[in-house]
Amino acid sequence: ALSEFPDIDVEIYEAASQLAEIGAGIGIFPRPWRVIQVLGLEEEMSKYSEVKRREGPVPGFRYRKGDQTTGLEFYTLVTNGNMMMFHRADFQRVLLGRLPKSYKIHTSKRLRSYTQCASGPIEVFFEDGSTTTCDVLIGADGIKSAARRSLLTEKAEQARSEGKHDEADTLMARIEPTWSGLTCYRALISTDELKQSAPHHKIYTRPTQYLGKDTSIIAYPIGGGKLINFVAFTARHDLEHSPFDGPWVSPVDRSEFAPFFDKWETEAHQLIACVHKTLRWAVHQVQPLDTYVSGGVALVGDANRNIDVVFLSPPWGGPSYLDAPLTVSETATPSSGEDTQEPSVGEHPDYSLASIQPIHGSALFSLSRQITPNIAYYLPRNTRLDEISDLLKVGPQYGDGDADPDSQEHVEVEEEWMGRKLKALTCYFGGLVDGQEALF
C-alpha cells in the first residue's frame, strides 16, 4: 500500500534468515478481499485460487455436528461474495512480487527493543547488536512481539512517573502471551490420496467445519485443488491462561490428536487417515489494549491479536422448541418477494433465552461482550424480540446510551429463510450492525 507514495522510504526487517514462503491455508472473506482489489492484486492473486470470484449471496462454509457416528449438517454460512482460498505460500509470493525495488529488505534481524523521545527519530535495536533509526515503526513481529513489550514498558514507565502505579502494573502484566487452552494440529492433505479412499467426499467443493464438544476440524481445498488444508482443534478450557508445557510449535505424529476423534463421523475419519505430517500449535493470546499506537510506533498482526468478533450458536435446549409450527403470516416476508403465506396451523410459543443450556442465553451474551462488542447470535426463529433487545442492557455498554436514540447502540435481526420457511434468526451487535462500524 505504501508503494503508492514514492516519497516514503520503507525498509523491512525480517527475523528469519530469508523471506521463505511457508505456511498452509488462508481464506479471505469478501470484506478483506476488497482491500486486495484496491491494492490492484486481484487478477494476479486469483491465479492461485481454485475458486472463482462470485458476487451476491454465496454459500460458503457448511457446519456439521461431527462428533457422532452419523454427522449432522445444521448450518450453511452465506456471505455477500465468496471466500477466496489460497496456499499461504502463494499468497505471500504475490505480495513479495509487488514490493518496489526501492524497498530495502534486511533478513536475520530480530527486534530486541526500541526507544523514542518527544523529538528526533525512533532508535531500533536488534538481537545481533545492530541498530537503525526511523520516523515510524510498524511492529508486526508476532505473538511474542518485542515491539509490544517495548510499547507497554514505555507506557508503564509514563504511568508510573505520573503516580499511576496500578495502571503501570496492569500494563506490564499484559506483556506476556498466555495459553488459550486451545491446541491445533495443522496439516496439508493430498487431494489425490483422499480421492483414492473417498472419491465423493464433499470437501473437494465445500469448505467445512466439523464441530464437537471441546474438539473441531476445519478443512478446505487450496493450491488449485491439489491440497486440502486441514486443522484439528482440541480445547482445555480449564487450562486457559496457564503456561503451556513444551514448545509452542512442534512436529508431532498423527497419533497425538487422532484419538480425540475416534467416535466421529466417517467424513472426519477419511480426512484424518490422509494426514501424515502434522505441526502442533499451542494457540496463545494477548490481552487487548486501549490503543495499539504510541508516538510513532504501531502494532499490527499477531503483535496486537485479540478477538474481533464472537459468533454464538449455543444449544437451543433440544427439539422441544419446534413443538408447534410457526405461522408465516406473523413474520416479515423475505426479500425475494415470493408469496410465503401458508395456512396457519397454530401459533408457535415464544422462545426464551432462559432455555439455552448450559447457562442462560443472556449470561452467555454478557460474557462474550466482555471480549468484544461485535457479536453475531444465532437463535431460534421464535425467540422473543424483547429479550433480544434487552441484551443491549447487559454486560459492558457501548455507544452513547444517554444521548438521543440515533446515537445509541442498536441490534440488527436477520431472518434466515429456506424456501418458504423461516428457520432461524441471526442477531448482530456492535460493529456488525450497519451504521455502527465505528464500534470495531
The assigned structural class equals alpha+beta
- What oligomeric assembly is this protein in? single chain
Weakly predicted, low-confidence segments: 324-346
Shape: globular
> How many alpha or pi helices?
9
- Average the pLDDT over all residues and give the rounded result: 84
The radius of gyration computed from the alpha-carbon positions, rounded to a whole number of angstroms, is 25 Å
| Largest β sheet strand count, sense and barrel closure | 8 strands, mixed
- Helical content (DSSP H or I, runs of 4+): 10-25%
Q: Beta-strand percentage?
A: 25-35%
Distance between the termini: 22 Å
Strand order of the largest sheet: 4-3-12-13-14-11-16-15
Total strands: 22
Topology summary:
Layout: E1 11-13, E2 25-28, H1 30-38, H2 42-46, E3 57-65, E4 72-80, E5 84-87, H3 88-97, E6 104-106, E7 111-115, E8 122-126, E9 131-134, E10 137-139, H4 146-161, H5 165-173, E11 178-190, H6 191-197, E12 208-212, E13 215-222, E14 227-235, E15 249-252, H7 266-273, E16 278-285, E17 293-294, E18 297-299, E19 310-312, H8 361-369, E20 375-380, H9 385-390, E21 412-418, E22 421-428
Parallel strand pairs: 1-6, 3-12, 10-18, 19-20
Antiparallel strand pairs: 2-5, 3-4, 7-8, 8-9, 11-14, 11-16, 12-13, 13-14, 15-16, 17-18, 20-22, 21-22
Helix pairs in contact: 4-5
